[in-house]
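assembly run, all chains below
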Amino acid sequence: MLNVGSHCAIGGLNIDFLINIVLLGFLVCTALAIVFTKNLLASAMLTGIYSLLTAGFFVVMDAVDVAFTEASVGAGIATILMLSTLKLTGFDEDPARHNVKAGLLAVCGVGVLLLYGIVDMPVFGSPTAPVHMHVAPHYIYQSMAEIGMPNIVTSVLASYRGYDTFGETVVVFTAGIGVLALLGASNHVPQSRVAPMSQHIILRVVSKVLIPPIFLFALYVQFHGDYGPGGGFQAGVIFAAAIILYSMIFGLDTARSVISQPLIRLLSAFGVMLYGCVGIVSLLNGHNFLDYSALAHDPLHGQHYGILLVELGVGITVASVMILIFFNFASRVDMVQEEQ
Amino acid sequence: MMIVVDVVSWVFIVLGTFLCFSGSVGLFRFPDFFTRLHAASVTDTLGSGLILVALVLQAGSEWLVTMKLLFILAFIFLTSPTSGHALAKAAIHAGQKPKTSDANEAS
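ok done. output:
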């Protein structure tokens, strides 16, 4: 085997440390580039790069689940949604600038305060940091016996902290409702004027080859989340990305005829409802809200069923809200063109 | 046997890094959009592809890792040239003309 890994030391420096320094350097450069770019298209792309670098940073820290979420949500779908917003607003920054000096002063003030706050923090990676002394040991030592999932992150996210994750799902659902209320008010959907890209034969053939594996991968991420990195959030986003790719290549009208809009709206609510219903069923069985041990005779089986259902609810809501937001933004472009 | 695999992987890694490096130099130094795109897609496809091949060789008996790397390799070989193609088409569509030499323009 090559002598590469955390054991490799160059001049007394750990290779992880070097990778961290390089990644942080890239992060700073990207942040500065975002600040100084006038073109909004370029800054949207740079924000995606920033998210991807952060994902790399999380991988170095062994937080693969977080890295996966950051890569798929931050670098993937957020960039697509930002680009479809820019299609509506135009690519140029508003030349009317606000007070630059006051902003700089505020940023410097907050920066000094943050640096002052660092002084009191425990050393990076210190095992005696408060965050490692509180509930973390319980999760690490007991979760296999209590939940029975190899991936502790999934046990924490879906079971121990199920209530928080329920809140996050509701936030995603609320975002979908907000976009619908602002953009999707009228039921009149104009014919898409944006020509589909299906006359580009290479794009069409390659995307036809790629879309089924992307769906398959989304399902793998969804149902393998108990054993490896992944879960409802990432799976939902990947699923939505495949459908967005389809509608970009084959046109919005084709995609609309495949995916019915009322069904998607219904599904986005259904996911949240599924999550809440799991909690209510455990309440009715005489346990706490979202205590999945109530779902089966064997508490471990109950936890497995509960986490499966809850993750499914998250996945359905996230996927349908992302598709909803994209479709509404895209058809807004057509509406604006129709008005002109 | 191990040493052969190691040497071959080193060769692939060095080749891949060289292509990545030369691709990024080309991205800065080439005169117009299309030549820059050419440099960038070499980095994307062959540079990362060769490094992945080296990693496959290093994965050894861990077949799951090997298969995952091969999937990534196939995905990159499909998507990178396609995205390069799409970028070039979009550039032509937006009115970018390839920069030709003066001799060609005169004829």
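Chain B has a mean pLDDT of 87.

The helical segments of chain B are 2-29, 33-59, 63-93, 102-106.

not gonna interpret more than that til we talk
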